[in-house]
Protein backbone atom coordinates (compact mmCIF):
# COMPACT_ATOMS: atom_id res chain seq x y z
CA UNK A 1 0.00 0.00 0.00
CA UNK A 2 1.43 3.37 -1.01
CA UNK A 3 1.65 6.18 1.50
CA UNK A 4 -0.65 9.09 0.84
CA UNK A 5 0.30 12.71 1.33
CA UNK A 6 -1.30 13.87 4.62
CA UNK A 7 -1.07 17.48 3.51
CA UNK A 8 -3.48 16.74 0.66
CA UNK A 9 -6.09 15.02 2.83
CA UNK A 10 -4.72 11.47 2.73
CA UNK A 11 -4.11 9.38 5.83
CA UNK A 12 -0.62 8.29 6.69
CA UNK A 13 0.34 5.25 8.82
CA UNK A 14 3.82 6.63 9.52
CA UNK A 15 4.43 9.18 12.25
CA UNK A 16 4.74 12.73 10.97
CA UNK A 17 7.90 13.23 13.04
CA UNK A 18 9.85 10.33 11.54
CA UNK A 19 12.74 11.18 9.20
CA UNK A 20 11.68 8.42 6.77
CA UNK A 21 8.34 10.12 6.36
CA UNK A 22 9.98 13.48 5.71
CA UNK A 23 12.23 11.96 3.07
CA UNK A 24 9.29 10.25 1.39
CA UNK A 25 7.26 13.45 1.16
CA UNK A 26 9.53 16.01 -0.39
CA UNK A 27 7.27 19.04 -0.66
CA UNK A 28 8.72 21.51 -3.14
CA UNK A 29 7.75 25.12 -3.53
CA UNK A 30 6.22 25.83 -6.91
CA UNK A 31 8.73 27.51 -9.20
CA UNK A 32 7.80 30.31 -11.52
CA UNK A 33 8.83 30.18 -15.14
CA UNK A 34 11.81 32.34 -16.12
CA UNK A 35 10.84 36.00 -16.32
CA UNK A 36 7.50 35.57 -14.52
CA UNK A 37 8.69 37.25 -11.32
CA UNK A 38 10.14 40.18 -13.24
CA UNK A 39 6.89 40.64 -15.17
CA UNK A 40 4.97 40.65 -11.90
CA UNK A 41 7.28 43.36 -10.48
CA UNK A 42 6.93 45.46 -13.65
CA UNK A 43 3.15 45.22 -13.46
CA UNK A 44 3.17 46.26 -9.80
CA UNK A 45 5.39 49.27 -10.60
CA UNK A 46 3.06 50.28 -13.45
CA UNK A 47 0.05 50.20 -11.16
CA UNK A 48 1.68 52.05 -8.25
CA UNK A 49 1.95 55.82 -8.05
CA UNK A 50 5.00 55.97 -5.80
CA UNK A 51 8.13 57.64 -7.15
CA UNK A 52 11.09 55.35 -7.70
CA UNK A 53 13.46 58.33 -7.63
CA UNK A 54 12.72 61.20 -5.26
CA UNK A 55 11.85 64.53 -6.85
CA UNK A 56 14.79 66.67 -5.72
CA UNK A 57 17.65 64.28 -6.64
CA UNK A 58 16.03 63.72 -10.05
CA UNK A 59 15.62 67.46 -10.58
CA UNK A 60 19.31 68.06 -9.74
CA UNK A 61 20.32 65.33 -12.19
CA UNK A 62 18.23 66.81 -15.00
CA UNK A 63 19.56 70.32 -14.35
CA UNK A 64 23.14 69.03 -14.41
CA UNK A 65 22.58 67.27 -17.74
CA UNK A 66 20.86 70.32 -19.24
CA UNK A 67 23.70 72.63 -18.16
CA UNK A 68 26.27 70.31 -19.77
CA UNK A 69 24.42 70.12 -23.08
CA UNK A 70 22.89 73.60 -23.12
CA UNK A 71 24.60 74.75 -26.35
CA UNK A 72 23.65 71.56 -28.15
CA UNK A 73 20.03 71.91 -27.03
CA UNK A 74 20.01 75.53 -28.18
CA UNK A 75 21.22 74.66 -31.70
CA UNK A 76 18.87 71.70 -32.00
CA UNK A 77 15.85 73.71 -30.90
CA UNK A 78 16.71 76.56 -33.32
CA UNK A 79 17.09 74.08 -36.18
CA UNK A 80 13.76 72.46 -35.30
CA UNK A 81 11.93 75.79 -35.11
CA UNK A 82 13.33 77.04 -38.42
CA UNK A 83 12.42 73.77 -40.13
CA UNK A 84 8.96 73.81 -38.53
CA UNK A 85 8.28 77.43 -39.53
CA UNK A 86 9.19 76.74 -43.21
CA UNK A 87 6.49 74.09 -43.61
UniProtKB/TrEMBL annotation:
The keyword DNA-binding applies. It is found in: Chromosome. GO terms for molecular function: DNA binding; protein heterodimerization activity; structural constituent of chromatin. The keyword DNA-binding applies. GO terms for cellular component: nucleosome. It comes from the Eukaryota. Keywords: Chromosome, DNA-binding, Nucleosome core. Belongs to the histone H3 family. This is Histone H2A/H2B/H3 domain-containing protein. It comes from Ephemerocybe angulata.
